[in-house]
Backbone:
């Protein structure tokens, strides 16, 4: 994970703290996407998969970071459940911060949003969420 994800303002980190994060229609991990898109390849993932991009593991570490999840409920590429799970993991990570910052994590679901058109389908509500 990036050292600034914890936003602890420690001067030992060479990066500034994150001011906020917007996540739109993304996956838990590459491994989970292989399970979804290519289920017959799943048993062989350990032999061929070289990158994991495990957003699911990073999500709970985003303490003190305002995070907005923008999700299209009709995403046919990335299962909508991935976004719901990322939201839950991030929210739970915030809640484990002694009850502080519970309102830093929000989700806006666009009912008719697809993977590439959520921004367009969301209209004014999408823009206002941002």
Residues:
């Amino acid at each position: 994970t990036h050292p600034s994800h914890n936003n602890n303002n420690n001067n030992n980190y060479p990066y500034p703290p994150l001011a906020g994060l917007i996540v739109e229609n993304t996956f838990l991990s590459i491994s989970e996407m292989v399970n979804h898109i290519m289920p017959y390849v799943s048993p062989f993932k350990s032999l061929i998969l070289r990158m994991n991009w495990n957003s699911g593991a990073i999500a709970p570490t985003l303490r003190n970071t305002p995070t907005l999840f923008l999700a299209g409920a009709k995403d046919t590429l990335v299962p909508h459940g991935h976004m719901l799970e990322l939201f839950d993991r991030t929210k739970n990570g915030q809640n484990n911060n002694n009850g502080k910052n519970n309102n830093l994590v929000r989700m806006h679901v666009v009912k008719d949003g697809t993977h590439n058109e959520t921004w367009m389908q969301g209209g004014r509500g999408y823009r206002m969420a941002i």
